[in-house]
Write a structure and sequence with these properties.
The complex is a heterodimer of chains A (about 650) and B (about 160).
Chain A (H helix, E strand, L loop, with lengths): L1 H13 L5 H5 L15 E6 L6 E6 L4 E5 L21 E2 L2 E2 L5 E9 L2 E11 L4 E6 L4 E7 L18 E5 L18 H4 L1 E9 L5 E10 L2 E7 L7 E7 L8 H4 L6 E7 H9 L4 E13 L4 E14 L7 E6 L3 E6 L5 E6 L4 E6 H9 L3 E5 L2 E4 L1 H4 E6 L5 E6 L4 E6 L4 E6 L5 E6 L4 E5 L12 E6 L16 E6 L6 E7 L7 E5 H5 L25 E5 L2 E9 L2 E3 L2 E6 L3 E8 L8 E5 L7 E3 L4 E6 L5 E6 L12 E7 L8 E3 L10
Parallel strand pairs in A: 12-17, 35-38, 37-43
Antiparallel strand pairs in A: 1-2, 1-33, 2-3, 4-5, 6-7, 7-8, 8-9, 9-16, 10-11, 11-12, 13-14, 14-15, 15-18, 16-17, 19-20, 20-21, 21-24, 22-23, 25-26, 26-27, 27-28, 29-30, 30-31, 31-32, 34-35, 35-36, 37-44, 38-41, 39-40, 39-42, 42-43
Chain B lengths: L1 H23 L39 H14 L19 H4 L2 H9 L1 H7 L1 H10 L10 H14 L4
Helix pairs in contact in B: 2-7, 4-5, 4-7, 5-6
The chains are: A mainly beta (about 650), B mainly alpha (about 160).
């Protein structure tokens, strides 16, 4: 205990005083001149913002925040009629979530620039973001899960994107109304394998049920270990209260190795048990500019304990967090967050151990491989609180240490520590472009920090989280830039800029291909129609007017749907739409797109609407009026543009 | 003279540099093809405009089918801003445009507006009145040609 206190006192005093001097000489490495492009796109989880942010590397410039799991009134996400179904779940409309990890699609183990996936940690889901449109294209919910943390990691050809439940819970297909202290009997873990189709479409292919534990992180095998997936798990003590203490009892928890090719065979052979569950699958349609939400009611479940050869437990000290596989696919790094060493497992040895049945009993019916039989070796005294590891493709691994607030570079084969740099402060995840793929691009390492105390101008009790960019092209890591981030960044991915910007980026939607049922393709098609108390406004926008811009005959009790079509056919010309008193949001409509805002007038009078996105020199002229009359009024429904109509009716 | 030569050489250098930059910055599948443009204003032909159309042959009589198609396309992409009378809306009215402009100028302008707005003296004068740069509406060549036919119809060609 005394040692610990002394140790932490030492660490505190070792805490770097100031890095500003160190960075000055290297700052130009992060400088990207005005008008020049960055080398890499960086897709960073927005943590509890629920969104995904896009930065450039090495400049750290923020390009975009893509709304994923949380509503975003700025973009109308979750407020427009078209986007509402994207946030539907089996619990109904959920306006917020916590996006922890991003993972880019891969082909042959290399990032391919098609999609990036994100996980919802709170109400378990996986999202797919299309990198041609930088828009969330699909969200699938995961049944039998609580806290989708070990997700959305993928296999080397994006065959599957996986999810492992952080909080084991009674299965949805069992009676969940049980005492909480029956965890051991009634709580189960479920690992989900979501198949990804050619166009990216997701389908929950199967789940594997395991004893109740906390699944934390995961990564797929690659190259020689393709066909396997590795999940770290903690709380193998199966505690259901005060996990801080009760889930930290054992010296070793596990990394669970899953032979998913074998699982596929069992599914083909009909070994999956159909279970009744409820989850939703939401898809965005680029032609109708609308989302649909479909409820699914069945999932195939394989039992890891009954089918002996799909899952194996590898003991791993102690409460492992990160679970990272090196570019060759041979080495699996477990980061025991409470351990003072980093174990590195060998895929080759693991296969040998399984073949020779070098088991040390079982855990809930799953064979436990002998620790030494699967171990390549341990990195000794690397630091305190190892969390995550990425790779540079040159035989080096880089591990973050939360407690000792540093990044440590070590040699995968010899397990020798080569370099260490401080971070400011308490680093969590890290990202090297392509750093969890077969082909890392090296050059930069970004550390994502949980704490920034004293790093920036103070902003009250809540301070920004941050990212720090290190140049890793030389032997020693060099800090070149740090910048605050949105939300709390967890995992991030990065890819060469050319891979994304040359992927067929969409500049605008072709108006001819717009199949939105309420599109007005040209002002001639603009109109206002009434069906009972529902009024549909087919509105167009082009620089710099709406058509129509005068609407009368709306009555109290009406529900007005503004279907706004942006007629522009040029890049970077969105129009906005805001109307007084709207208790929803604005619309931002991309060129050629149609979007709908529902508006329920709450008072009689004239209410203005206007374009919210500065579109031209006459943007301030881009406005209109809507007249709201009392219920039962005989003001006829009329609309006009430029003709000062209707002629005075009274 | 020497100075002029130097200037032209410098321009040519710039142009080639510019082009190189462009190809580097190219997106693999642009929605609209942007014709390569010369940055030398002295080479701009105000009668022809700038773009891929050198000479557009017009028949003496109207192609009714094409004009009808043109009216349809214009309804989606043009008439929100242009009236068919001589009245200005966002942009100038279309009445008489085919008499004021050569067909190749019209075709170039509606398919390649940005460089022409930057260079054409009359377009620049028009911009001072309208204050809105005519957007590139992503017209296909056949769409542009049908709009021209519709403009001719609007100007009384039978």
């Amino acid at each position: 205990m005394l040692v610990l206190v002394l140790g932490s006192a030492l660490l505190t005093s070792c805490k770097p005083k100031d890095s500003s001097d160190a960075a000055i000489g290297d700052a130009e490495k992060a400088y990207v001149a005005p008008g020049k492009y960055d080398e890499f796109y960086n897709f960073v989880s927005g943590g509890f913002s629920g969104q995904l942010s896009v930065y450039g590397l090495p400049s750290g410039r923020l390009f975009r925040v893509i709304p994923v799991f949380s509503v975003d009134p700025e973009k109308g996400w979750g407020y427009s009629e078209e986007t509402k179904p994207m946030l539907n779940t089996s619990h109904g409309f959920v306006p917020w979530d916590d996006l922890h990890h991003t993972e880019m699609s891969q082909t042959n183990g290399e990032v391919d620039g098609r999609w990036v996936f994100g996980n919802a940690n709170n109400t378990p889901r996986i999202a797919r973001i299309d990198l041609k449109t930088f828009k969330t294209a699909e969200i699938i919910e995961l049944p039998n899960s609580g806290g989708n943390h070990s997700s959305p990691f993928i296999t080397e050809n994006t065959e599957y994107v996986v999810a492992g439940t952080r909080f084991s819970v009674p299965a949805d297909y069992s009676d969940g109304d049980v005492p909480i202290n029956t965890y051991k009997q009634n709580f189960k873990g479920h690992i989900s394998f979501v198949k990804v189709g050619k166009e990216g479409e997701m389908d929950l292919a199967f789940q594997i049920v395991t004893p109740g534990v906390n699944f934390d992180l995961s990564h797929a095998g690659k190259g020689k270990s393709h066909g396997w997936f590795f999940f770290s798990c903690y709380n193998t003590e199966q505690a259901n209260t005060l996990l801080e203490v009760n889930a930290s009892q054992k010296d070793k928890d596990f990394i669970m190795a899953v032979n998913w090719k074998k699982a596929e065979e069992y599914i083909k052979a009909g070994k999956g048990k159909k279970q009744a569950v409820k989850y939703v699958h939401n898809k965005w349609n680029e032609k109708t500019h609308s989302a649909t939400s479909e409820t699914k009611t069945e999932v195939l479940v394989l039992d890891a304990a009954a089918l002996k050869d799909i899952c194996y437990m590898i003991p791993c000290p102690k409460s492992p967090h990160g679970c990272d596989v090196d570019p060759s696919g041979e080495y699996i790094v477990g980061s025991g967050k409470l351990a003072a060493l980093i174990p590195v497992f060998s895929f080759g040895k693991l296969m040998g151990a399984i073949k020779d049945k070098k088991f040390d009993g079982d855990y809930g019916g799953i064979n436990v491989v002998k620790y030494e039989a699967a171990l390549h070796g341990e990195v000794q005294k690397p630091g305190l609180g190892p969390l995550h590891t990425e790779f540079d493709g040159k035989g080096n691994a880089y591990t973050t240490f939360f407690v000792s607030s540093e990044v440590v570079k070590w040699d995968i084969k010899s397990l020798k520590v080569l370099d260490r740099v401080p971070t400011y402060y308490s680093v969590g995840h890290l990202c090297i472009p392509g750093g969890d793929s077969k082909k890392p691009f090296g050059k930069y390492l970004v550390a994502y920090n949980k704490i920034t105390k004293d790093r920036y101008l103070p902003t009250g009790p809540e301070l920004a989280q941050s990212a720090q960019i290190f140049d890793i092209s030389g032997d020693k890591m060099k800090l070149i830039l740090d910048f605050p981030t949105i939300g709390e960044p967890h995992y991030a991915q990065a890819a060469p800029a050319d891979l994304i910007r040359n992927n067929g980026q969409l500049k605008f939607y072709k108006i001819g291909d717009n199949n939105h049922p309420f599109a007005a393709k040209g002002e001639k098609e603009s109109k206002v129609t009434r069906q009972g108390n529902q009024v549909h406004v087919y509105m167009t926008s082009i620089r710099s007017h709406f058509g129509p811009d005068n609407i009368e005959g709306i009555k109290m009790g009406d529900e007005v749907y503004f279907h706004v079509t942006n007629l522009e056919q040029d890049w970077d010309v969105p129009h906005g739409f805001g109307i007084k008193g709207a208790n929803t949001a604005e619309l931002l409509i991309m060129p050629g797109e149609t979007a709908t805002l529902k508006w329920t007038p709450d008072r009689v009078g004239i209410l203005p609407f206007y374009c919210t996105d500065f579109c031209s020199a006459l943007h301030q002229e881009m406005q209109g009026y809507i007249r709201v009359s009392p219920a039962g009024s005989n003001v006829p429904l009329s609309f006009s543009l430029g003709t000062n109509l209707p002629a005075a009716t009274k | 003279m020497h100075k002029l030569l130097l200037l032209i050489t410098a321009m040519a250098l710039f142009t080639s540099c510019g082009k190189k930059e462009k190809s580097e910055n190219d997106f693999s599948k642009p929605e609209t093809e942007e014709p390569t443009t010369s940055t030398d204003p002295s080479s701009y032909d105000p009668k022809r405009g700038e773009g891929k159309f050198d000479k557009v042959d017009l028949a003496a009589t109207l192609d009714q089918t094409m004009a009808t198609e043109g009216e349809k396309v214009a309804g989606v992409k043009c008439t929100s801003c242009h009236k068919t009378t001589d009245e200005k809306l966002v942009g100038p009215g279309w009445k008489g445009v085919t008499e004021r402009r050569k067909p190749e100028w019209i075709m170039n302008f509606i398919t390649n507006p940005d460089p022409m707005i930057d260079k054409d003296p009359e377009v620049q004068a028009q911009l001072e009145i309208c204050l809105v740069r005519m957007p590139n509406q992503g017209l296909a060549d056949t769409e542009a040609r049908s709009i021209l036919e519709y403009m001719r119809k609007n100007d009384g060609v039978k």
